[in-house]
Amino acid sequence: MTGPLNKPGVGKPGASFRDRLAACVTTRRALVVPGAANALSARVIADLGFEAVYVTGAGVTNMYLGLPDMGFLNLDQLAEHTAAIRDALTLPVIVDADTGFGNALAVCRTVRVLQRAGANVIQFEDQVSPKRCGHFAGKDVIPAEEMVGKIHAAVDARTSEELQIIARTDARAVESLQASGAVARGPQRGEVRKLFRPACASPGTARFQRQADPARREAPGIPNAC
User: DSSP strand E in 20-61: where?
Assistant: First the structure.
């Protein structure tokens, strides 16, 4: 590969990634973020001109351990991959931190470790442990109140407000679309600006989600991903 390490980012030059993400939300502009399983794939993503890199837990588990995405990856392994990707490029790095590797106290340590490793954004999900890929059957979720507590812990553990937190919920697939809205409505301090709902069953489900989702009505500032 011959491409440079530096690539154009989202929005105006010099703006923080937090501000650039906020601009995408305000303008309702999609941000395509390919998943990287290692530093080499991250370099390919950068060379192709994408605006950010997503360190995928499934990809790292598959490529590094040769195992399915069912909770085998640990924090130290994820942090090692995050640091290698951070050293390989200057694009913003979004890290899939699965369930945070434990309860709210463990989430605090996860945030500190991944922030030191170079994460710009960290994503947490609400599955029970051991988790499994959102596209797999047999998953289950923790109570919404527990997930909200973990998100608060993640926000409080940051050493910089530039670090962003994404809340992912699998409640739509396990319980109902309305149940998944509780994660969006829960945080009260405005710290969660992005809600990720994986594995939409069909385009019709996605359209219904956009039209009827109470989280979108009651928390309109939190965009959904499907």
Answer: 35-36, 53-55
Write out the H or E segment, with its range, that includes residue 205: helix 203-212
DSSP state at residue 93: E
Q: What is the pLDDT of residue 202?
A: 46
Structure confidence at residue 191 as a pLDDT band (50, 70, 90): low
* Cβ-Cβ contacts under 8 Å for 209 (sequence gap 6 or more): 172, 177, 197, 200, 216, 224, 226
Tell me: the pLDDT tens digits for 125-161? 999 988 888 777 778 899 999 999 999 999 999 999 9
In the three-class reduction of DSSP (H, G, I as helix; E, B as strand; rest coil), residue 129 is classed as: coil
CB neighbour list of residue 134: distance below 8 Å, 6 or more residues apart: 125, 168, 170, 173, 198, 199
Nearest to 182 by CA among 146, 129, 135, 153: 146
CB 203 within 8 A of CB 171: no
CB atoms within 10 A of CB 115: 20
Neighbours of 112 (CB within 10 A): 13
DSSP designation for 128? P
* More confident: 190 or 104: 104
pLDDT at 131: 87
Assess if CATH 3.20.20.60 describes domain 52-225: yes
Determine the 3-state secondary structure of 160 from DSSP. Answer: coil
Domain ranges of the chain: 52-225
